[in-house]
Design goal:
This protein is mainly alpha-helical. Helix content is 49%, strand content 4%. It folds into two domains: 253 residues; 110 residues, no CATH class. The protein has a three-stranded antiparallel beta sheet, with helices on one face. A hairpin with a 4-residue loop joins strand 2 and strand 3. Helix 9 packs across helix 10, helix 11 crosses helix 13 and helix 12 crosses helix 13. The longest helix is centred in the middle third of the chain and has 21 residues.
Length: 395
């Protein structure tokens, strides 16, 4: 990533203990406030233009509400001049892309200014885009905005050629890959869905792993087929984030990534304490007993209405019930109707899967005694397809 100026410190502020990081890692408190962006604070001097997309990146991954909890109010609308942005270079355009994709700015004026800025970039010769191509945050910001505007009737004709242009730029290998390389890979996959993210990063560097957690949390759908980080690396990352010296206050992007990754790890640990496969089995075994209160009335309890009868008649009904039970426990680790890598002319699809456990849950419905033989044959055929890549699922 290209070097940028580091005048990022803001006035002293007291972080709120409601933000998960602060309750566990108190030494981070002052540093968190110093690292957060000042671009959108009316009481602070606006940052230099080369840093604007860094501030927007932080807003995108942490969220405006979390930043307000730590450092107080932010005023984004007054800090954005849509008329000037198309002429302020790629940092301003990338910043606007993050804000549009994050739902912070939703006006037609903001979308028009963003597209005009990208169109101006697309007309420049490659030689003049060297700084842009070296900046993984900027590439992700522009991509984020284009993907967010894809499918909108009023912008679709302008977005498609810009996506094609940017995808071509991202196919070029970077001159000096750094810890933020995964942002570039994410940007490329968001544009063309080639499946680059299905190859998990095996890096053990704390910055790279923290970024992986940050990106997976913010762009979860793009990582749905990415193997989960193994338990050993996850535990080591948590230890390093808590005990290692924090990034300097001017290292805004890396600092915000550490904050986000630490918050994700702590939230995940507090929420589930990593349930095992055995825990999942016990939950599923308890479903039948839990149906004792399932609604199936012989007669309506009120006049003029039909009796309440929650029908479960197909495999899809059972899948919906299991999703209702398992999602509060596993949240984003639970996936449904997920296609696995193809094997020859066949591509398997799992009913439900828990990524962190590498566990597949398959639903089969038997209506007659003779159905069990068919189910056994189906399961035998599915097993060979499900576990071709044990990095995704292995049981």
């Amino acid at each position: 990533m290209a070097e940028r100026s580091s005048d990022k410190t803001i006035a002293s502020a007291q972080p709120s203990p409601r933000f998960g990081v602060e309750t566990v890692a108190q030494p981070y408190s002052g540093w968190v406030a110093e690292c957060l962006p000042k671009a959108f604070y009316p009481s602070q001097q606006a940052p230099t233009e080369p840093n604007k997309h860094s501030d927007a990146f932080v807003l995108r991954i942490l969220g405006v509400s979390a930043i307000r909890e730590i450092v107080g109010n932010v005023d984004i609308d007054s800090a954005i001049d849509s008329e000037k942005i198309p002429y302020q270079g790629f940092p301003a355009v990338a910043a606007l892309g993050f804000l549009i994709a994050g739902g912070v700015l939703v006006s037609d004026e903001a979308s028009a200014a963003f597209l005009m800025g990208v169109e101006r970039l697309s007309t420049r010769p490659i030689a003049s885009l060297a700084t842009f191509l070296a900046d993984d945050v900027a590439l992700l910001g522009v991509t984020d905005g284009l993907v967010a505007l894809t499918g909108r009737a009023q912008t679709s004709d302008r977005v498609a050629p810009l996506r094609f242009w940017l995808a071509g730029l991202l196919d070029r290998p970077p001159d000096a890959p750094g810890w933020s390389m995964r942002m570039r890979i994410l940007a490329a996959d968001l544009l063309d869905q080639r499946g680059r993210l299905q190859v998990a990063s095996d890096d053990t560097d704390a910055n790279v792993l923290a970024l992986e957690y940050t990106l997976q949390s913010t762009w979860a759908r793009a990582f749905i087929k990415t193997p989960a980080v193994d338990e050993q690396r996850r535990n080591r990352l948590l230890q390093e984030l808590v005990t290692y010296a924090a990034p300097q206050s001017g290292d805004l992007e890396r600092g915000a990534v550490w904050v986000k990754a630490l918050d994700v790890l702590i939230d995940d640990a507090c929420r589930s304490l990593t349930p095992s496969v055995s825990d999942t089995v016990r939950i599923l075994q308890s479903v039948q007993a839990a149906l004792r209160r399932w609604k199936w009335e012989a007669n309506a309890r009120r006049q003029g209405v039909m009796p309440t009868r929650w029908m479960i008649d197909t495999e899809y009904d059972v899948q919906a019930l299991l999703w209702l039970i398992l999602y509060p426990i596993y949240r984003d680790e639970l996936v449904d109707e997920t296609y696995l890598p193809s094997w020859g002319n066949v591509q398997a699809r799992v009913d439900l899967g828990i990524k962190k456990l590498k566990l597949i849950i398959e639903v089969k419905l038997a209506r007659r005694p003779g159905d069990f033989a068919d189910i056994e044959e189906q399961v035998a055929g599915d097993v060979g397809l499900y576990f071709q890549d044990t990095n995704l699922f292995d049981r």
